[in-house]
Amino acid sequence: MALSSHIHNFSVLSVSKTIENGNGRRRARMVVKMAASTSDMAAAFEEGKLERPKWSGQTPLSRLVGALIAFKPLSSVLKLGARQVLIRTAEKGNIPWREMTKEILESDVYKELESIQNPSLVYPDYYLNPFHAYDEGNLSWLAAAEAEAATMSMVRRAIPNASTVDEANQVVRGNWLQAIEQHHLQYSGTTMIRDILDIGCSVGVSTRFLADKFPSANVTGLDLSPHFLSVAQFKEKKIGPRKNPIKWMHANAEDTGFPPQSFDLVSVSYVFHECPERAIVNILKEAFRLLRPGGTIVVSDQSVSIHAYITLEKT
After folding, report:
1. Is 73 part of a structural domain of the chain?
2. Model confidence, pTM
3. Among residues 207, 228, 46, 52, which one has the least CA distance to residue 145?
4. Cα gap 143→148, rounded to integer Å
5. Of 3, 4, 144, 213, which has the maximum CB count within 10 A?
6. What residues make up the domain containing 199?
């Protein structure tokens, strides 16, 4: 979903609604409404009927799965097993997960933390929970070290017929960048993309794609995890200098601290599936506050059809 701003003072009224029927299927509708002082605009995205595992939702089987996961000794075993499956699957797809992780953990990446971390930042409560089978969630070096391999694995699964990860990236990231460029040209005319904000940039994979696509722009990657940002900065230094170096910012996307109308393009990639609704609303409000007239917001994320698996990961 890409949205173009031609007017100011937007406020997000609602974000999502999910309707369930009795046969285990669901129809998901995501509506984002923005109200402005001069006019109203709305963008809607609707998916068709989606299958979901029988153990998801409010069913006896789902409650049993929830109870099993809540039992900590068993939960630890399940998380370990899930991690091993993810790693083996990635490595079968020629993604050197363990080798990439080891390279980061045995590097000097830790030296980047001091220059990245904002010690006064207060983390939102949801961000402090265990996530993705990491007890410390995204606030850990292991999560940061494995993030790029996990991202590569996700792209590989999205394009199963691709012969390589690079080919899969050309499809997923290439289509994403092409959609951004075409939308901006269609709705923003001759407005230059001078400043870009990548919200929830993780270890900088999407940020580097944006910087490569728009080399004359000033690109900023923002994330709540100083560990992820440290890896992003460390990897960027290894790549070499750019005409416009990427800036990395440790901040909460709900309240970035940037002045209004600071960016021509705001990207939110693979973030919202990890956030509660209140955070999504606040991030969208902040994104529109930061957008210049004629600017573009682009949101990309995983299909809601895998919501059940995301719920299991979060638990």
Report:
1. yes
2. 0.77
3. 228
4. 10
5. 144
6. 57-314
